[in-house]
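Hi R.,

Here are the chain sequences for the assembly we discussed:
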Amino acid sequence: MFALRDVSKGYAGRPALGPLSLDLPAGRTTVLIGPSGCGKSTLLRLLIGLVEPDTGTVTFDGTPVTPVTARAVRLRVGYVIQDGGLFPHLTARGNVTLMARHLGRDRAATAARVAELADLARFPPDGLDRYPHQLSGGQRQRVGLMRALVLDPAALLLDEPLGALDPLVRADLQAELRDIFRRLGKTVVLVTHDLGEATFFADRVVLLRDGRVVQEGSPADLWHRPADPFVTRFVQAQRGPEVPA
Amino acid sequence: MRPPSAPHALPLLACCALAAVIPLVPGCAPAAKPVVIGAKKFTESVILAETGAQLARHAGAAARRDDLGGTPALWLALTQGDIDAYPEYTGTITRQILKADPPDLAAALAAHGVRVSRPLGFRNNYALGMRKDVAAARGITRVSDLRAHPALRLGFIHEFLDRPDGWTGVKRHYGLPQTDVRGMNHTLAYRALVEGAIDVTEVYTTDGEIAQYDLLVLDDDQHFFPAYEAVWLYRADLGERHPAVVDQLRRLEGRITEARMQRMNAAVQADKREEGAVAAEFLRAELGVAAGTSDGTLASRVLATTGEHLLLVVPSLLTAVLVAVPLGVVAARRPWAGRVVLAAAGVLQTIPSLALLLFMIPVMMWLVGRGTGAPPAVAALFLYSLLPVVRNTHAGLTGIPGSLREAAAAMGLPPLAALWRVELPLAAPTILAGVRTAAVINVGTATLGGFIGAGGYGRPILRGIDKFDVPLMLEGAIPAAALALAIEALFGLVERLVARRG
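And here is the predicted structure of the full complex:
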């Protein structure tokens, strides 16, 4: 679905990403993981042209992503950021339908779509007319997901979607999200720094370090067939609770 | 209930205000142009102009008085056609307006499309005045006696300071040595003289204050000051448009004695009577003419000045908002443009408001052909209202978290739609706060419009200062304060509505 060829990107003269080449297959969930500053968020932004590469090309479904095509690409890709990135001056419904209204979509069809998405994301219908500050963190994230899905995109990008939630809500939402991903069968690219979350979601994991791909494969590959000592260190750094006997 | 979102509320508000104002703007309402009699900003001129306006009304024409300021403003207004006539003095015509002493004054003025009446009867000469006790203590009775007292403190109106027939001329003619010379308002100069803050000021020989404060008028022993005989100056075309008005104005020729004029001046200055009432009394007694005054009741006057004030404030504020918000958007989008725009608006704000107002006179003369009255005031207020709105629009837009701007872009909203649907609504509370600041500054600054005949609350305030008439000053000051408070309250309400969406 997405393909990067020899892509690199730097900020203020310092390389942030690449050069790297990567394919993100359609219909699968790919998780980008790595320590802070490894370039995983930059990579996600490159996919929909929020960031332009210094060298190389990014293509989506065969079309190169350029400033000219970026808007058309974004309409076919849903994007969710931490805490939902909701607009505080719009209600939950206003947030979800913003793009459909801008495009002049049929109002009845949009309303039906909102009801369908609320059902999918298990969002209470009476919450639709509340403003973001009147919702809980988990509810805001559900609205963010609904907003990303409203135009029925071909792909869904999520940047640390559960980072701001407390552990219990997070665990519930992880399970629900994976369920939704499987039911929709869309191309999903998810960024996280949590290996547990990555293995929970991923068909494929891409481990990044200093802007380069260290290893790419199934979660099991990272555990059992580490490509280099960094992978081993990264895997072992994710510790479970140490419970005294 | 869902509160209205700001992108719909803002233009709605603007449209309502615009719709309310347009019928009030002069020029938009169809009406025959009334006869306008100009007045300089001192009592005698206002009384004479008031008699002129009443006589014009007696002749059956719609007429009003317009208080414009100094000689240059009146002459400009007369030749441009903003006013039809005004009372002037022969000495001022030769020395300041024509800067020549032609053998045939009427012919020289006709070259400018202006006619002159025969003298109205009295002379109002310039002279130097002192407190009698101060003059006696130094043995001063004549202007030439001033040479021996270089330490005397002098206070003149600014116009007198600069006129060739004023201080610069007297100083050269008599070789006067004084260096402590200050410019001040005529009425304040009288107060300063009476209270001993200055020793000498210029007086007009018909001033009511000469008798009121028992002042000594110094003898012009070397004959510097020319004769200042009061006359009407009127446009040549007034005789064609309103021949009856010219006939009525000229009925005053030779009818006003010096003593009579002094009494009328004192009635206004010392007894705080209305100029219109004093003028009407004179016309009734002298010519048997009974015409309505321009004074009106307190309520009708405040209503009229409020209307005039709003005509300055609302158009200037609305256009400022319509220009400043896009400027603020550009400033927020392009950092280099932002620096230029904010710096330019900041510089505008540092220009003293009165200076900006006066600067707008030639500019508006050139742009719309009207250098007095409302246009220059509205233009100055417009420039003055820009900065708070530009700055707050810029601050409101740049203060939006980057994650929200990115969320809008990532959805595929094009830049203009993102601005309209996301950024402006988010910045709306900050922008509104800027408009509120601009509105309050605007209401206060608009009172300075009184200096250039723009009307509004500044008119009674300035007339009040000229006459030292505190109730008249308050007639402008109190409504101005009330209007500022009302605007504060209105915007507070709108801001709460907008901010409810938290």
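DSSP finds 22 helices and ten strands in chain B. The CA atoms of residues 114 and 235 of chain B lie 5 Å apart.

Let me know if anything looks off.

Best,
T.
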